[in-house]
Specification:
The complex is a heterodimer of chains A (202) and B (233). Chain A has 202 residues and is mainly alpha-helical. Chain A has seven helices and no strands. The longest helix of chain A is centred in the last third of the chain and has 39 residues. Chain B is built from five helices and ten strands. The relative contact order of chain B is 0.20. Classes of the chains: A mainly alpha (202), B alpha+beta (233).
Chain lengths: 202, 233
């Protein structure tokens, strides 16, 4: 948090701090991703990936947009915030060399395998999990773009073998992201308690 | 397919959406059309920028998926007599024309195996055979102020396209599907087919092509309900 906060108990560890840009990314990502997710379920319902028209549909309280046209309206508006947010953050992580310190590396894998220190192991796992979500977010954009513009980005669409595989890969992001949200929150709590979580949001 | 959902489905959805509007909609669904409209200019500009006259890579004949092309209509399936059928081309053209099916079939036949993508989310690899719209427009000679192409169908369906997409080398007025004459369900005797636009842009049973210099308030059956106009792929 802020250094202006007076430390009441000098013995307690310093409050965790996060870079302002990391907090902005985290907020924008969380909000845009959930708009993508709920409007995506609306689009899904027009022709379920599994089973087609006869397939199982998501209940309407999980969908955003009211109908297919409305769902597409939200999805193709939020995509700009979601994709551009990830783009500037990726550039920031590269340019600031943040990836060297703040993301998982071989050391974390090693710690998980050999460390006897439970705290170090939790920390390594936490870093590995939040690092691993980044390629999944990028994959959701790539598969989405391949479905949104399969003629313009034919080379990209053809990487996904066929349309059903492409739709499945794009949809798989939904359960992965929901699962990630839970695991990521739990690991953050375990590693740095509520103070770490607060530091990322405020 | 030109018409992605049935009337019954639309009614069901409108019922569902009113229900969800009452339940949670004040928070979630209200403003959906505003959001769509706010971002349509940006999305459309991006799609127009991505559009080129370069042909989209095609698929081998062995990859055609005959069962995957679903039939969507917004109303009834018109049964048109091929002998009496005429295609009218008019509006902002120097040579308004009226073509019979025999006239159309005398023009060069273009065949393509492309992916047909429906707004609903499904897709099918289909072979279409027909006349390039570009060829028909070359004969009709659009005036220099022509910007848009309207398509009117025998069932009352209507669509409008940007001229650049209409003159794409793979935009066909098709009378064949998967090597066979087009069936009534698929739009016989003549329909639009193209790999660069969503299915609802690809009108079936086209009887009239009108070139205009501006987009009218009615842009297309589904566009007027809230689908985006450009619908590019």
């Amino acid at each position: 948090m802020t250094s202006a906060t007076p430390a009441k108990r000098p013995k307690s560890p310093p409050l965790p701090t996060q870079a302002l840009l990391a907090k902005i990314f985290h907020w924008a990502n969380l909000i845009s991703l959930f708009v993508m997710l709920f409007s995506g379920l609306q689009i899904y319902n027009a022709n379920p990936v599994f089973g087609g028209r006869g397939g199982w549909h998501f209940p309407s309280f999980l969908t955003l947009g009211g109908w297919l046209g409305g769902g597409r309206g939200w999805h193709f508006a939020a995509m700009w915030f979601y994709a551009l947010n990830l783009l500037w953050y990726g550039l920031y992580v590269l340019i600031s060399r943040r990836w060297e310190k703040r993301f998982a590396s071989g050391n974390d894998v090693k710690a998980l395998q050999v460390s006897q220190n439970a705290k170090r192991k939790n920390y390594a796992l936490h870093r590995l999990v939040y690092t691993a979500i980044l390629p999944i977010l990028v994959l959701s954009i790539a598969s989405g773009l391949a479905m949104y513009k399969p003629a313009s980005f034919h080379w990209l669409s053809s990487l996904f073998i066929n349309w059903q595989t492409l739709r499945t890969v794009h949809f798989i992001a939904v359960p992965i992201i929901i699962l990630f949200t839970f695991i990521h929150s739990l690991l953050a709590l375990r590693v740095g308690s509520i103070r770490l979580i607060k530091s990322m949001f405020f | 397919m030109s018409k992605p959902i049935s009337r019954r489905q639309l009614l069901q959805w409108s019922g569902l959406s009113s229900a969800s509007l009452l339940l949670n909609g004040c928070r979630l669904n209200l403003g959906s059309s505003e959001v769509g409209q706010a971002f349509e200019p940006l999305n459309q500009a991006t799609q127009a920028l991505l559009l080129t006259q370069k042909p989209v890579p095609e698929f081998p004949v062995s990859e055609i998926e005959p069962d995957k092309l679903l039939i969507n209509t917004f109303d009834q399936t018109p049964q048109l007599d091929p002998a009496k059928y005429r295609l009218q081309i008019e509006g902002e053209v120097n040579h308004p024309m009226q073509l019979s099916l025999t006239d159309l079939q005398a023009l060069p036949l273009t065949s393509m195996v492309i992916q047909h993508v429906c707004v609903e989310g499904w897709a099918a690899i289909v072979q279409w055979g027909g006349v390039r719209l570009h060829e028909l427009l070359r004969l009709a000679q659009p005036k220099s102020n022509a910007r848009y192409v309207y398509f009117k169908s025998a069932d009352g369906y209507y669509e409008s396209w940007d001229l650049a997409s209409a003159t794409h080398p793979q935009t066909l007025m098709a009378y064949q599907k998967n090597g066979q004459p087009l069936s009534a369900d698929n739009g016989a005797p003549l329909r639009l087919a193209s790999p660069i636009k969503l299915g609802y842009k690809q009108s079936k049973w086209v009887t009239q092509i009108v070139l205009t210099n501006q987009l009218m308030p009615t842009k297309g059956y589904w566009e007027d309900q809230g689908y985006e106009w450009f619908g590019g792929l």
